[in-house]
């Protein structure tokens, strides 16, 4: 199979879809790989390493024209829409429920578009989202601590406090992969941490996982209001696979918070968990609404691309190898998790949450693909 890796165009995005080590595995299996010149530089993967691994180096046009399977990290931007074509497979993070224009463009392209974030095991686990959730969760307290500094507009509170002075109060809304990793790092920074979660079973898991060092409470509107009123830092960490993030904190509720408190909205790439959130970039990451500092970078793991690229490729490569070795149709027949990842196929939306978000008709992936 012919596999293409273009440079990511999203602002401040330095991750890349394959490492040279992964290219070596693919070319060793008899597949051809073309990488856009300079695509891996931000992840410390120079062109000569790709060449040594057996890839060819080409222009962006050559990558899109030659490849049957396109591997990216983030969703295509508007300038990339015309290059996506029928007969091509696009494998990347898509987050379509928050992006109607991209959804319509992918429908029009006729391509088969598989979203990393909706590849889902029978257990409900999201294997291709997990490493980036871990990275984003671990970054969230770090970015929140930075935003709490006075010269960023924050309250001027040190996360860990000092002897005789209380530490920052951190509220994490959601106890999944992002939330548990955020809580872990916030604890490591010696903050006072509260995690709000709707599943009692998950709270029991977190109690054990975090050695009883966090406070755990049921997530409901009243509890959220009470928690944010006392918080220095609030981290939004709720995910519904493939769907738009639920709106958990309204603008009215910001009035309960202390001036200079910080919101880190990890779910911003799925629309955000705070009514006042809007996507920002690493170059311009924060803004203030009603005295509350918002950090809403839509590609948080892009801040640490060497770690993030390696973590992502570790989990995507087995699926890429499966598609390349077996062909798309057989790979999807044999792997129900990969089939669940198909969001758009041959001009049809194949994920219910995406269809619901944009009021579009949907079909089962197997039906749309003729499997």
User: Approximately what portion of the residues adopt beta-strand conformation?
Assistant: 15-25%
The CATH class of the largest domain, by name, is Alpha Beta
CATH-level-2 architecture of the largest domain: 3-Layer(aba) Sandwich
Low-pLDDT segments, ≥5 res = none
- Average pLDDT, rounded to a whole number, is 95
Q: What is the ordering of alpha helices and beta strands?
A: EHEHEHEEHEHEHEHEHEHEEEHHHEEHH
* Quaternary structure classification: single chain
Summing up helix and strand content along with how strands pair, one would put the structural category as: alpha/beta
The number of distinct structural domains comes to 2
Q: Can you describe this structure?
A:
This protein is 36% helix and 16% strand. By secondary structure, it is an alpha/beta fold. The two termini are 20 Å apart. The model has no long low-confidence stretch (mean pLDDT 95).
What features would you highlight for this structure?
seven-stranded mixed β-sheet, eight-stranded mixed β-sheet, 371 residues, 15 strands, Rossmann fold, alpha/beta
Structure at a glance:
It contains 14 helices and 15 strands. The protein is an alpha/beta fold and about 375 residues long. Helix 5 crosses helix 6.
Question: Which SSEs are present, and which pair or pack?
Answer:
Layout: E1 2-5, H1 20-28, E2 32-36, H2 47-52, E3 56-58, H3 60-66, E4 69-71, E5 89-92, H4 100-109, E6 112-115, H5 130-147, E7 169-173, H6 177-188, E8 192-197, H7 200-209, E9 215-218, H8 221-230, E10 233-236, H9 251-254, E11 262-265, E12 286-289, E13 292-295, H10 305-326, H11 328-334, H12 336-340, E14 342-345, E15 348-349, H13 352-358, H14 365-369
Parallel strand pairs: 1-2, 1-4, 2-3, 4-5, 5-6, 7-8, 7-10, 8-9, 10-11, 11-13
Antiparallel strand pairs: 6-14, 12-13, 14-15
Helix pairs in contact: 5-6, 10-11
């Amino acid at each position: 199979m012919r596999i293409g890796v273009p440079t990511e165009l999203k602002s401040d995005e330095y991750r890349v879809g394959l490492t040279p080590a992964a290219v070596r595995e693919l070319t060793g299996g008899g597949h051809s790989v073309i990488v856009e010149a300079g695509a891996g530089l931000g992840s410390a993967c120079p062109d000569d390493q790709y060449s040594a691994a057996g890839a060819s180096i080409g222009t962006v046009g050559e990558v899109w024209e030659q490849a049957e399977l396109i591997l990216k990290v983030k969703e295509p931007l508007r300038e990339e829409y015309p290059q996506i074509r029928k007969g091509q497979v696009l494998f990347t993070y898509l987050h379509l429920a928050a992006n109607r224009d991209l959804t319509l463009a992918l429908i029009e392209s006729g391509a088969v578009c598989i979203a990393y974030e909706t590849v889902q095991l029978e257990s409900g686990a999201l294997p291709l989202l997990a490493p980036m959730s871990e990275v984003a969760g671990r970054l969230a307290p770090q970015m929140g601590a930075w935003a709490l500094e006075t010269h960023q507009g924050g309250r001027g509170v040190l996360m860990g406090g000092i002897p005789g002075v209380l530490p920052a109060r951190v509220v994490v809304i959601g106890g999944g992969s992002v939330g548990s990793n955020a809580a872990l790092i916030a604890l490591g920074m010696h903050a006072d941490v509260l995690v709000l979660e709707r599943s009692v079973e998950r709270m029991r898991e977190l109690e054990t996982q975090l050695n009883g060092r966090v406070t755990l409470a049921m997530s409901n509107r009243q509890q959220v209001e009470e928690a944010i009123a006392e918080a220095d830092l609030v981290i939004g960490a709720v995910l519904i696979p493939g769907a738009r993030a639920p709106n958990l904190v309204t603008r009215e509720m910001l009035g309960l918070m202390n001036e200079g408190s910080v919101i880190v909205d990890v779910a911003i790439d799925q629309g955000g968990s705070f009514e006042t959130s809007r996507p920002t970039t690493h170059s311009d990451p924060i803004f203030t609404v009603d005295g509350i500092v918002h950090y809403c970078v839509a590609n948080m793991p892009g801040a640490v691309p060497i770690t993030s690229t390696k973590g992502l490729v570790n989990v995507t490569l087995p699926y890429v190898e499966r598609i390349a070795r077996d062909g798309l149709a057989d790979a999807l027949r044999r792997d129900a998790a990969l089939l669940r990842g198909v969001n758009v196929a041959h001009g049809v939306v194949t994920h219910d949450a995406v269809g619901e978000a944009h009021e579009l008709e949907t079909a089962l992936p197997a039906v749309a693909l003729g499997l």
